[in-house]
Amino acid sequence: MIKALILDDEQSAINTLQLMIERYVPEITKVKYSNEPLLALELIKTFEPDILFLDIQMPKLDGFAFLKQVKTINFTIIFTTAYDRYAIQAIRFSALDYLLKPIDASELQNAVKRFRLISENENNRKQLNANLLHNIATPDKKEFILAINTTQGTYFFKTEEIIRLEGMSNYTKIILINKAPLLASKTLKEYDEILAEHNFVRIHKSHLVNRKHVSSYNADGNLTMTDGSKVEISRRRQHEVIEKLKFGIN
Amino acid sequence: MNTLNYLTLLADSNNIWAGSSKGLTFIGQDEKHKNRILNFTEADGFIKPGYSYVQLCQGKDGIIFAATINGLSSFNPHSLIVPYRAPLVYITDIAQLNTNTTLINDRSMRHSFLYKENSFRFGFTALDYSDPEGLHYYYQLEGVDTIWKETGKHRFINYEYLNPGNYVFKVKALNSKGKWSEQEARYSFSISKPLWQRWWFVGLIFVLIVSGIYYYIKRREENIKHKEQQNTELQTVKAQSYQYQLEMTQIINYFSNSIHNQNNVDELLWDITKNCIAALDFEDCVIYLKDEKRNVLVQKAAWGLKTTEENKILNPLEIKMGKGIVGNVAATGNAEIINDTSNDSRYITDDAVRYSEITVPIVSNGNVIGVIDSEHPEKNFYKEKHFQILSTIASLCADKIEKIKTEQKAKETEIEVLQLSKDLATSQLTVLRAQMNPHFIFNCLNSIQQYILKGNVDEANRYLSRFSKLQREILMNGTQQFIFLEKEIELLTLYLQLEQLRFENTFTYTIHTASNIDASEIKIPTMILQPYIENAIWHGLIPKSGDKNIEISFILLGNEYLQCRINDNGIGRKASALLKANSTAKEHISLGQSLVQDRLKILEQQFQKKYEVSILDNLDDNAEITGTLVTLVLYIGD
Fold it and tell me: Omega into B377 within 30° of 0, i.e. cis?
């Protein structure tokens, strides 16, 4: 039995999601909703939902601000948004789930599947939520903490601690300063999308490097990283990569 | 001898004895007493003289008897003659006549005299009490006299104007009994030679004369040599001047050639600094150019010990006009050689003190535009030669900079024009993409409406979420002029799926990428294929019945180009045109494609590379049209 709460300022969006849940996710047996954040706060206490479908863009109190008001988050949050790059980045950075409106049925199903996996580990969920709040609260991108889901658990690192990432089919090897590398369960492409705004440069289809950890560009088309490792720049990206390394992205 | 008559004469063994009124006289005859005459008087114990007659006779024992009127005397002649004492002789005094001094003959006596003290009187005497009157003196001055001389009874002798030398004055006496002084008295002395006669003086004079002569000869030789040397030097200078000219010409040619090949100011300046080290043996060379706006000199090129392999100055040194030697030269426009920087208050120590410096302004059209500067740790390193060469280089450099600047200006204008057209092209492309999107959007919305009207909820839902996904991707990537092929294929797939849904899977599609293509590395213009695919579906496949297929394939043409083929087995252009003729939706058909064609043209113009599209009919063996092949060739960079 899964209880879900929907918070969205648009009633039509609530209705759509409710219908989608009924149609595609029968595991969710109880659904309550509100288009009023304060009411939703009450419902969290009384209804004790397992999943909160939370709209980010709301005129009075946006999704993130709403979360800050919640004292104890003992539910899984699935954000819903139509189009908000910044918010989506923050959510992805924190390894949390989100759905884009209009909601795709299979994506909804997958999100609920993931909830079932994550909800097994209460502590882990708390950490992820706390990290999201941290990332939202900090004005400085440098302070953002990347949540990395691995088969061993979730790890949290500042971007500056990451030297580079290496794509390995559906996994990504993350090479860190003075730590054993992690094998994250996300593709390099996803990390590229998340980290592009954090000074990371895709230099090869299998390599994403932290610009801050590039110690030199070598004539043979490689980069030497601060940990001494050499990373190949793909031939066709040479020009673009060098420009990015020179002038930075941000 | 007495004047008296000898009355008696007696021969006694050959000797003669004679008697007179005065006494007795002995005249030696035998060998022992030869030439000896001795007188015996009353003092000798004889009878008083005064008798006039004496008779002498000799007894057998030899005793002689003398008979006078006063009595008879006898004596033994042997005892009478001998023995007797030898007189003792002394030199009593020596008078130095020139100085009129008397020298006492004692131990403190002077023995050496100056050449001027050359006249002496020697006084002497002998002691003989028996008969002082009978003493006779003999003397000899060794060094002057070769024999002994007699003074008689005179007891002094003068020597005057003696020559310098060593002398021994000797004197001896003979007494009346015929006895010589047993020992002669001696006085040795020397008269020194006058200065001009002394050996060392003469030696000195000799040496002086000889060395004088030597010096004279030497001087003469040197004079000749010097003249010869001057001659040679003149020749050398002439030769050197020629050599110098040649060297100068060579160096300047070298620089001139090197400068000629440069077409970038930075490279030119680096080249000059480098050559200064190589060709002129400088230890460093720095070129500053004036920043007119800020009125400072900015270091542009520096070659020397500090230089790293990269031609880069990370933090260029800046010198205010008028500051230091460099600033001064830039301000005055006069080149300077500083032979000792420690004496120049303007000198600014860089990383180490270098004692000499040469600074030459680069002057263009009467304005100082920069400075060439070199420093050297040795004092007085820079010579006239360096000055001339650097001045020439500076003027060559100024000309070249002027030339490059003019060229650059022309180029910049050209680039500006190009950039303008590029900007124009980009803005046009944005407009074109914006035009393409609504076209597609409304087609999709139209399809969704169809599902809703049909009451197919799931299909409508699926269609909608794909459409929104595609639309989101287009929104995200649409502003980008280029897109990774990978992404483009993703978008095309979404689009094809949407169309499949719309046409209820009445057509199939395949997308094939050649194995040598890495779709994650190649970028192509965003959404350039979609209009052709759309056209193939709508106008090639849909009107057709039966098997409908569209094949999309990507292959590489060399390294620089990607060929994209859209091959459908539709009805072909001719049939489509016929259908169109009967249709009212004329505009719809050509819009997407014409927009792409415009984009391709602009891209071609922008990159000066090939962006082409060609459309062909597919023909079967019977020359029947079996579809349409659209081929795009896109530049993908090297």
Answer: no
Question: Cβ–Cβ of B518/A234 closer than 8 Å?
Answer: yes
Q: Which residue has the tokens 């079932």?
A: A116
Backbone φ and ψ for B60, nearest 5 degrees, come out as -75, -35
Residue A87 sits in the same domain as residue A35: yes
Q: Which residue has the higher pLDDT, B77 or A68?
A: A68
Minimum-distance CB partner of B465 among A102, A234, A237: A102
Closest residue on chain A to B462 (Cα):
A104
Is residue B169 a contact partner of residue B139, using CB atoms and an 8 Å limit? yes
Topology of the domain covering B262-382:
Beta-Lactamase (3.30.450)
Helical ranges in chain A per DSSP H = 11-24, 37-47, 63-69, 85-93, 105-118, 122-137, 188-195, 238-247
Residue range B196-213, pLDDT digits in tens: 777 788 888 888 898 999
pLDDT > 90 fraction of chain B, expressed in percent and rounded: 9
- Between CA B255 and CA B275 the distance in angstroms is 7
Q: For residues A108 and A163, state if they share a domain.
A: no
- Which of A23, A101, A236 is nearest residue B521 as measured by Cβ atoms? A236
A30 close contact with B: CB closer than 8 A: no
Residue B592 DSSP SS3: helix
Report pLDDT digits (tens) over B571-612.
888 888 887 777 655 545 556 777 788 888 888 877 888 899
The residue extents of the domains of chain B are 8-81, 88-197, 262-382, 421-635
When scoring A20, A103, A104 by the number of chain B Cβ atoms within 10 A, the one with the most, hence best to mutate, is A104
The Cα of B528 is separated from the nearest Cα of chain A by a number of Å equal to: 20
Q: What is the pLDDT of residues B522-567, one digit of tens each?
A: 999 888 888 889 889 888 898 888 899 999 999 999 889 999 999 9
Chain B residues with CB inside 8 Å of A237's CB? 521
Looking at residues A79-108, what average pLDDT do you find? 87
Q: What is the mean pLDDT of residues A79-91?
A: 84
Gyration radius of chain B over CA positions = 74
Is this complex scored with an ipTM above 0.85? no
Residues of A in contact with B468 (CB under 8 A): 100-102, 104
- Strand duo A28-34 + A2-7: pairing: parallel
Of the residues B451, B464, B465, B476, the best mutation for testing chain A's interface (the one with the most A CB atoms within 10 Å of its CB) is: B465
Number of domains in chain A: 2
A215, A226 Cβ separation under 8 angstroms: yes
Residue A74 lies in a domain: yes
A31 lies in which domain range? 2-137
Domain B88-197, architecture per CATH = Sandwich (2.60)
For residues B508 and B66, which has the higher predicted lDDT (pLDDT)? Answer: B508
Asked whether residue A86 falls in the same domain as residue A183, the answer is: no
Q: Among all residues of chain A, which has the CA nearest to that of B559?
A: A236
Contact A107 B465 (CB under 8 A): yes
Closest CA–CA distance from residue A29 to any residue of chain B (Å) = 21
Least confident interval from A191-195, B230-234, B346-350: B346-350
